[in-house]
Fold this sequence. Notes:
This protein is mostly helical. The protein is built from three helices and no strands.
Amino acid sequence: CGDVNDDGQVDNLDRLALTRYLADWDGYGEDTINMDAADVNQDGSVDNLDRLVLTRHLADWEGYKTLPCAG
């Protein structure tokens, strides 16, 4: 959950990979990122809301200490 780049950690590299996927960058397609982990709010789609939740989690915002998909 949240480990978009499958490196075993949830960090800013995951946020970056998700941002690039959402911006349709070359090399950041559904075949290169973990789509299940990227759907952090578990609504069935990977979108900007997932990036927002992941960003707030990484910034240690109150209410975002645990990602919804981890609970």
